[in-house]
C-alpha cells in the first residue's frame, strides 16, 4: 500500500522543482547582503540595487512552501494539482506551518484531486468546467479548510517544537545532530538521502534557524575536497591510488565541489563504493558536528565557497570544512587499494541487487 | 531488442546522465539497440521520436521523479526502475528483463 502511494517519488519530484528556486533565491540574498542590501519594507521610498536583490531572494524563499506543495500535488495528480497545490502552500506560509505544512498540503490535495477525477461524473456540457473550475475549486475548498481549521494546528506545533528543540540544543547534542545531518547530506552525493537532509535544512531556514544550512553546505563540499586531498596525498607519497581515468574525474570533481556540487564524486565512488561512501560520510559527519557545535550559520542555502563570506563565522566554517575534508582524505588515502589497470571496471563491478520487485507491464 | 527509455533524477544534473550512459553502453554490449531521452533540470534532451517509440520492443523508465510524456508508451511494455538501479546494476537489470520477457512470452 505504502509503496503504491510512492510518497518518496512525489517528494523528490517537488524537490527537483524547488532546487533551482532555492539556489537562485539564496544567491540573490547572498549577493544583496554582501553588497549591504536589506529587505525593503516600503517600496514607495527609494531603495538600492543591493536591497532589491536581497528582497527578491527573500520573496523567492517565500515561494518554497507553495512550490513544494504544488510540486507534490502535480506529481500525484498531474496538471490539475498545480493551482490547488500552490494555494495549500500559501496556507502553510500564512499559518506558520512552514515546509512541513506545504508537504502535507501537497499530498492531501493531490490525492483528493485523483479521487475527484475518478469519482465525479458530469454531463457533457460541463466537461470543460471540470478541470477549469470544479476540481480546482472543490479541492482547494475542502483541503484548504481542513488545513486551516484542523490539520494546521498540530503542524504548527510540530514546526514550533522542532524550532525550539533545535535552538535549545547544547554541546554534544548539537554535535550529534550536526554529524547526522552532515552524514546524510554526504551519504549519496546529491541523491535522495541528501535531498531529505537538504529539504530539512531549507525548511528550517524559513523558521530563522541557520545552522543546519551551514552543515548542509559543508557536507556537500567535503566529498569532492576529501577525494581531492586523498589524491594529492597519493601524489605526495608516491603511492598509486587512482587510475588515470579517475584522476581526470577528480580534476572535474574539485571545481564542481567549490560550487557545492557533490555529484562530481559519483564516478569515483561508483568504482569503489564502500570505501568512498564511508570515508565521505564520516568526514562530513565530523565536519557537520563541529559546524553545529560552533554555531556556524548560513543565511544562504546554496552557492559553495562563494557564499562563505555571508556566513556568521566564515573562518570557523573553513576550519570545520578543512577538518572534515582531511578526515575523508586521509581515510581514503590509507584505505584505498592500488587501482587495477582495468579501465572497464566502471562497467563491470556490480553489487548484487534484489530485482524481484521489477515488473514489466 | 530495440529499447527506448527515459532517465530523470532529483537534481537533474548528474544521475540522469550517468543512468543514460550506463543503460546505453551496457545495453549495446549485450546486443541491444538503446535510445534514452533525458529529462534533466535543463529540460528534455535527446527526445525520442515517434518512429523510435513505434519500433521499440521495450521501454525502460529510470527515474526517481515524475517523468513527462509517458502517454507515448501506451501500448508498450514498460519497466520502471529508480536511477540507482540503472547506475549500479545495469547488467543484472538487462538479464532480469530478458528472463522476464522470455517466461512471459
Would you write up a description of this structure?
The complex is a heterodimer of chains A (361) and B (105). Chain A is an all-alpha fold and 361 residues long. Chain A folds into two domains: 162 residues, no CATH class; 178 residues, no CATH class. Chain A is 72% helix and 0% strand. Chain A has 15 helices and no strands. The longest helix of chain A has 40 residues. The mean pLDDT of chain A is 87. Chain B is globular and about 35 Å long. In chain B, strands 3-2-1-4-5 form a five-stranded mixed sheet. Chain B has a single domain, classed as 3-Layer(aba) Sandwich (Rossmann fold), CATH 3.40.50. The longest helix of chain B has 15 residues. In chain B, strand 1, helix 1 and strand 2 form a beta-alpha-beta unit. The model of chain B has no long low-confidence stretch (mean pLDDT 92). By secondary structure, chain B is of the alpha/beta class. The chains are: A mainly alpha (361), B alpha/beta (105). Chains A and B meet through helix 2 and helix 12 of A and helix 1, strand 5, helix 3 and helix 4 of B.
Amino acid at each position: 500500500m505504502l509503496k503504491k502511494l510512492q510518497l518518496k517519488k512525489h517528494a523528490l519530484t517537488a524537490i527537483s522543482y524547488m532546487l533551482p528556486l532555492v539556489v537562485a533565491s539564496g544567491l540573490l540574498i547572498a549577493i544583496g547582503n554582501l553588497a549591504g542590501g536589506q529587505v525593503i519594507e516600503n517600496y514607495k521610498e527609494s531603495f538600492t540595487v543591493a536591497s532589491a536583490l536581497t528582497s527578491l531572494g527573500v520573496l523567492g524563499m517565500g515561494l518554497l512552501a507553495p512550490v513544494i506543495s504544488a510540486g507534490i500535488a502535480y506529481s500525484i495528480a498531474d496538471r490539475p494539482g498545480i493551482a490547488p497545490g500552490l494555494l495549500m502552500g500559501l496556507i502553510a506560509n500564512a499559518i506558520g506551518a512552514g515546509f512541513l505544512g506545504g508537504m502535507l498540503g501537497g499530498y492531501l490535495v493531490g490525492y483528493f484531486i485523483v479521487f475527484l477525477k475518478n469519482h465525479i461524473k458530469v454531463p457533457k456540457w460541463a466537461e470543460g468546467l471540470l478541470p477549469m473550475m470544479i476540481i480546482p475549486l472543490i479541492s482547494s475548498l475542502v483541503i484548504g479548510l481542513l488545513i486551516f481549521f484542523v490539520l494546521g494546528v498540530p503542524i504548527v506545533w510540530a514546526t514550533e517544537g522542532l524550532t525550539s528543540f533545535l535552538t535549545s540544543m547544547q554541546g554534544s547534542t548539537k554535535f550529534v545532530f550536526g554529524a547526522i545531518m552532515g552524514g546524510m547530506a554526504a551519504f549519496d552525493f546529491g541523491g535522495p538521502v541528501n535531498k531529505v537532509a537538504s529539504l530539512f535544512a531549507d525548511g528550517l531556514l524559513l523558521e530563522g534557524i541557520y545552522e543546519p544550512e551551514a552543515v548542509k553546505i559543508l557536507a556537500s563540499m567535503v566529498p569532492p575536497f576529501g577525494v581531492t586531498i586523498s589524491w594529492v596525498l597519493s601524489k605526495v607519497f608516491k603511492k598509486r591510488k587512482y587510475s588515470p581515468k579517475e584522476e581526470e574525474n577528480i580534476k572535474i570533481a574539485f571545481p564542481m565541489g567549490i560550487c557545492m556540487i557533490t555529484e562530481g564524486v559519483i564516478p569515483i565512488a561508483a568504482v569503489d563504493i564502500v570505501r568512498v561512501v564511508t570515508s565521505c560520510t564520516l568526514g562530513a559527519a565530523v565536519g557537520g558536528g563541529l559546524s553545529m557545535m560552533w554555531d556556524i550559520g548560513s543565511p544562504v542555502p546554496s552557492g559553495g565557497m562563494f557564499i562563505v563570506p555571508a556566513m556568521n563565522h566564515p573562518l570557523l566554517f573553513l576550519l570545520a570544512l578543512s577538518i572534515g575534508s582531511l578526515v575523508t582524505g586521509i581515510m581514503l588515502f590509507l584505505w584505498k587499494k592500488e587501482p587495477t589497470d582495468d579501465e572497464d571496471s566502471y562497467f563491470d563491478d556490480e553489487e548484487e541487487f534484489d530485482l524481484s520487485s521489477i515488473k514489466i507491464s | 531488442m530495440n529499447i527506448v527509455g527515459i532517465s530523470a533524477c532529483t537534481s537533474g544534473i548528474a544521475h540522469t546522465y550517468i543512468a543514460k550512459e550506463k543503460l546505453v553502453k551496457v545495453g549495446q554490449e549485450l546486443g541491444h539497440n538503446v535510445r534514452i531521452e533525458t529529462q534533466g533540470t535543463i529540460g528534455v534532451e535527446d527526445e525520442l521520436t515517434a518512429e523510435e517509440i513505434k519500433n521499440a520492443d521495450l521501454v525502460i523508465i529510470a527515474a526517481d521523479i515524475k517523468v513527462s510524456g509517458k502517454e507515448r508508451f501506451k501500448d508498450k511494455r514498460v519497466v520502471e526502475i529508480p536511477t540507482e538501479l540503472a547506475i549500479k546494476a545495469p547488467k543484472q537489470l538487462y538479464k532480469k528483463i530478458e528472463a522476464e520477457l522470455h517466461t512471459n512470452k
